[in-house]
Structure formats: C-alpha cells, structure tokens
C-alpha cells in the first residue's frame, strides 16, 4: 500500500467577508467553524426501534482570531456598529483552503459579538464571533 503525503499551509487559507479580505490572523488556531444545529439526532424506543430526525438548521458560528494590531479588527467593529445602528451590517462569507479541501460559504453573515478588550505587557489576540444564515461546507 502506498502512503499518501499531504501538505497544509495556513497562508493558503483565505477568509473573505463581503468585499474585505481578512488579514492579521492569530498564531495557532485562527478560524473555527461550528454548526449551530443538532445535525442528525436519534431516539430509541423501549423495543429497540430507532427513529432519526434531521435538524433543518443550516446556520453556523464562525470564530476568527486576529492579532491585536490587525486592520481587520477595525472592519469587523465597523460592521458590528453598522448592524446595531441600522440593521444593515450583513455580508457574504467565504472561507477556502486554496490547496484544496474546505470550502465554506454563506450569503449572509454578521458580527454577533465583538471581542473583549484586553490590555497587558504584550499584544493579545482578538476573537470575533460571526453568525451565518444558511451556509454550505464542502470538503
């Protein structure tokens, strides 16, 4: 059996929010994508029969970690402020590994929560929480 070697390059992962390309990703884990729905659940009856239910929720939560000085922090804060003021702060989202593999997209996303403000001797990463409407994820 022949072995397979793959290569991951974090520089080849892109995140586009509306017309803004996110830059200044934090070191280590910088994007986390998590389904909001329950996926496929099941129940077993007393006689062992199993019934399954498919949750129709296609929403996701995306957490993006950025360096403290990243210019994308300002863009995300601006969109959050706009959304709270006018309700018009939504944007499409695309996350793609250019080396192949993951493609995640949604027509509507918004900054659900801004980052906490931390000040100290060194710089701190900032984690943004973004929610989406119906989204697709392909591998």
3D architecture notes:
By secondary structure, this protein is mainly beta. Helix content is 11%, strand content 42%. It contains one helix and ten strands; from the N terminus they run ββββββαββββ. It has one helix at 72-86; strands at residues 13-17, 20-21, 31-35, 40-44, 50-54, 60-66, 91-97, 103-113, 126-132, 135-138. Strands 1, 2, 3, 6, 7, 8, 9 and 10 form an eight-stranded antiparallel beta sheet that branches. Strands 4-5 form a two-stranded antiparallel sheet. The longest helix has 15 residues, at 72-86. The two termini are 24 Å apart.
Characteristic terms for this protein:
single chain, two-stranded antiparallel sheet, eight-stranded antiparallel sheet, mainly beta, about 140 residues
């Amino acid at each position: 059996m022949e072995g397979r070697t793959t290569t991951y390059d974090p520089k080849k992962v892109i995140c586009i929010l509306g017309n803004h390309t996110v830059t200044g990703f934090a070191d280590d884990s910088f994007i986390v994508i998590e389904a909001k729905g329950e996926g496929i659940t099941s129940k077993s009856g007393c006689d062992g029969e199993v019934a399954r239910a498919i949750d129709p929720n296609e929403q996701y939560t995306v957490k993006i970690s950025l360096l403290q000085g990243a210019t994308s922090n300002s863009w995300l804060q601006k969109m959050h402020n706009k959304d709270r003021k006018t309700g018009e702060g939504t944007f499409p989202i695309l996350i793609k590994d250019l080396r192949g593999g993951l493609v995640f997209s949604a027509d509507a996303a918004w900054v659900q929560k801004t980052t906490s403000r931390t000040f100290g001797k060194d710089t701190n990463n900032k984690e943004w929480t973004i929610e989406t409407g119906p989204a697709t994820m392909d591998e």
